[in-house]
């Protein structure tokens, strides 16, 4: 992984991914007691930065391989990012999802042209086996959600934009809080900023109880979460940081920051009110850290990513109740 | 009013107003049966295009006049646009609001540095008299919400961006639906497109029962609404088109399009789900027309403005229930 892979991904994404805006509001600055800039990846195609990684990975395949199609395991944003990218290239995308995934996510993926294959978690069906069989039969290429260099490179294009937008806003020193699951976006942004804006320091942002990355950064080895599923921030829940992402995070990131689910809901509500954008809980955790844990952050300026590919209206209503 | 005033306003706004993105989603295209591009003015500072007009008007004043401050009558987006612009110039903004305005709007205006002066609608206090007295005492300049050339010029900068973004998207023919109250935004965009993209045809979009502009375009004279207040689309309810705006609309616009309040709520919900942006009912009426009345539109591509400076969470919850 290096900056050249990210700039190459940026060239492939140009004209296809959106250059998402950096938003701000005096009201949010007041809450945080610092300047807060919000990188609005919720406005990316499919509602999250996952489109960048999906496009990067699909576009990096040679024509012959790509023609056969791609396959991904995901019930959420990665599924939609890969499906949308594959459709744009006119190639099949098979998405393996649990049969009990929310119908919203299944339909959302189908609407983007994804061929959804459901497996039954309860009866012990093995999704890896199903995926491997399909991949073998049809010559599909597996696109992993984060531990895949071209996916990390795609997410890194968000970091290139942050570097430029921070410079445009006159910001040379800042802490950059990134919503962190397996670490693909965090590693990609960290690599981009190392090359383009080394005084912007990246911190992974995670929900309480799922702070595997923060603990891994302290211990120096890949820690696991005690609980591996459930929780409002499902978009960013992974058992542990990735094999490829963790060494990058360990080398480049400052300490992880953690916020509660309730704080994530409040951050969603404040983004609704003051920025007019829609985030999901996992995609609001970095903003929650920025707003409610700014005492743990050194710089006067915080940049936080926000995203929201699959927002359950019921959860959004719960967030609005916090206003 | 001419294009030179708009390009001059654009020069004054540069670096201060946001260049708002043009969003889209395959799901919205499917609903409309046409390509739909959404000009996301909800992402403008203060949540609506009113910031453009406010900045344009305040920045057009000579230094001596501006130093004394400005005054506006508004309980909504115009108040916040003017307050934010005045604060940026370091000059006072007095905003006259009814005492029974939602506390959210009063506080939102104060948070932006506006000096809110409340009057009592019920007891018959005359807001014009209060405003005139204050303006006289303090040398304040009145900034009208739409019937003011520099405000129209400011809103027109949104049209310059639409012309450029449509060209970037390969769109040369389109119908442009604009949420229309007094007609400031609609007239500004129409003037900008006349000069920069004459094959983009503007249509005012209004809620049922408040279609004064649509009826005025048919009769050729300024018609009034039977009911002058109330309704979900309060952000764009005015008794009739403006004296300055109407001749521009009559010369440049195609027929008005009308949608129901329920359709506005559904458009808000679809913008939530597919675009991840927050609109208020009045700011979603053009998208509602695009999605649910596309049969009245000739082109294959529709561009719709969307905005949402003051969204009541309760109204937003009602919108989410339509999903």
Automatic annotation (TrEMBL), chains A, B:
InterPro entries: Ser/Thr_deHydtase_PyrdxlP-BS, TrpB-like_PALP, TrpB-like_PALP_sf. Residues 16-308 form the Tryptophan synthase beta chain-like PALP domain. It comes from the Bacteria. Signal peptide: none annotated. Its cofactor is Mg(2+); Mn(2+); pyridoxal 5'-phosphate; Ca(2+). Its EC number is 4.3.1.19. GO terms for biological process: D-serine biosynthetic process. The keyword Lyase applies. It is an enzyme of class 4 (lyase). One of its GO terms (molecular function) is magnesium ion binding. Keywords: Lyase, Magnesium, Pyridoxal phosphate. Belongs to the serine/threonine dehydratase family. This is L-threonine dehydratase catabolic TdcB. The lineage of its organism: Bacteria, Pseudomonadati, Pseudomonadota, Alphaproteobacteria, Rhodobacterales.
